[in-house]
Amino acid sequence: MANIFDYIDWRGDLDLTQDPFNEVDSLILSTVSYIDFELIETDLKKDKATIREAGEQFNRLHADEKIKAGRLVPDSIFQLLDVLSRTPRYRDMILSDYVNQIDEEEEKQFSAITVNLGDGSYYIAYRGTDDTIVGWKEDFNMSFKAPVPSQLQALDYLKKIAKKKRGKFRIGGHSKGGNVAVYAAAFTSPEIQKRILQVHNFDGPGFTKDIIDQMSQGKISERIQTIVPQSSVIGMLLEHEESYEVVASTQLGIFQHDMFSWQLQRNTFVKVDDISASAYKVDHTLREFILSMNAEEKEEFVETFFCVLTETGAKTLSDLNLKEILAIMKRLNKEEKENKKILTQAFRMLLKIPTKK
Questions:
Q1: Residue 332 to residues 3, 322, 342, Cα–Cα distance (Å)
Q2: Cis before 149? omega within 30
Q3: What are the backbone angles phi and psi of residue 113, rounded to the nearest 5°?
Q4: End-to-end alpha carbon distance in the chain
């Protein structure tokens, strides 16, 4: 089996007229959204650059540095940019309209970029949750707030891009990026929806029942494709209106959230029948825990959890050192019995610490 690097090596010499845009291309461009484009010379918030130019600039500026993407985002994204910048299929695609907003007061982490595919259409890539603690708090807020700031920002971004650009759109994102992509497509105007070819949600969480009920009134659902790995945890949270497909992964447990572990055959994912039994058990436990609380209890739970994290002074998960991690685990251990297990599981999930058997 193969991953997205193998796909690029195999199909990278063919442009979109020779081999049309597919779900693997969508995952690749969704992954590109994780790159901090403030690390290149061109200001993509105001200007534009081809993927080749962006890759060349990044390599020139940071050739002697070992840049980390964060505790949860694979460092392979920088290798991906380098490979794409040298690949005929992608190198002349144009990047523009980069947005990256972190607002602790508003509890918002949002980033997006638009890619001119060169075939008369555009791809809007929404970034998933990054390394910032405020980004993860916004994710947890989804369990009792509807909508959260990033969902509204994603909708606003889509409207602005649709006003600026002519042509059709594809929309996608990984993790929270997939969630906000679905939200934006579902709640935009019918005129913009007519221009949307497809929406890809790669292991992104679902929505509260209130949001689902509103989304069911739209006509975009048949163009939404949700793909999760066998041991999906993030993507199975909350509710999905749409069905989902399951992809094979070379990783285990929460590590399957890593899109570089997803397996491909030619230009499509290797699909399996359903999520694993162990993943179903974890997902069922989390779902039951979430449903057992009312909105006020969920908010109190989230505030308790993130109060423990932010008391360290850390802004990102990477800021947490071993001493602080052990201190947090000790603090969580003192919580009431009914909260202790789920709080500890949540913390392990954030840091990708394997759960004890």
A1: 38, 15, 10
A2: no
A3: -150, 150
A4: 29
Secondary structure letter of residue 2 according to DSSP: B
Q: What whole-number distance in Å separates Cα of residue 336 and Cα of residue 346?
A: 15
- Residue in the structure block whose two tokens are 């508003």: 106
Nearest to 126, CA basis, from 143, 101, 90: 101
For 219, counting Cβ atoms within 10 Å of its Cβ (0-12 exposed, 13-18 middle, 19+ buried), the class is: exposed
Cα–Cα dist 247/258, whole Å? 12
Beta bridge partners of residue 171, listed in sequence order: 124, 199
Q: Chunked in runs of 10, what are the mean pLDDT values of the chain (357 residues)?
A: 92 94 97 95 97 97 79 82 97 98 89 96 94 81 85 97 96 95 95 96 85 75 89 55 80 81 92 66 59 74 76 76 67 61 63 46
- For the purposes of burial, counting CB atoms within 10 Å of the CB of 212, is it exposed (0-12), middle (13-18) or buried (19 or more)? middle
Q: What residue type is 28 in one-letter code?
A: I
For residue 104, how many other CB atoms are within 10 A of its CB? Answer: 13
Q: CA-CA distance, 249 to 261, in Å (whole number)? A: 5
Alpha-carbon torsion (37, 39, 45, 50), positive or negative: negative
> What gap in Å lies between CA 131 and CA 94, rounded to an integer?
26
CA distances from 177 to 113, 238, 343 (A): 11, 15, 24
Predicted TM-score (pTM) of the model is: 0.85
The rounded distance, in Å, linking the Cα atoms of 177 and 324 is 29
Other beta carbons less than 10 A from residue 206's beta carbon: 23
Output the DSSP codes for 183-232.
HHHHHS-HHHHTTEEEEEEES---B-HHHHHHHTTSS-GGGEEEEEETT-
What DSSP element (H or E) covers 110? strand 108-116
* DSSP state letters, 338-354: HHHHHHHHHHHHHHTPP
- Cα gap 3→5, rounded to integer Å: 6
Residues in the chain: 357
DSSP 273-331: SS--HHHHHHHHHHHHHHHTS-HHHHHHHHHHHHHHHHTTT-SBGGG--HHHHHHHHHH
